[in-house]
Amino acid sequence: MTLAPQRSRNLHMRYPPIDGFWTWDIKRDRIYGDANLSAYFDLTLEEFSHGAPLERCMQSIERDDRPRVRLAIRKAIERRSGFREVYKVRSEKMGLRKILAVGQCYVDDMGEAALYPGWFIDLTQDAAGEDHSLREIHEHVEQAREIAQSIGDDMLSYLLDNIQEEILQRLGERSRRRKSS
Question: Measured between alpha carbons, how far is 75 from 54 in angstroms, rounded to an integer?
Answer without folding.
Answer: 15
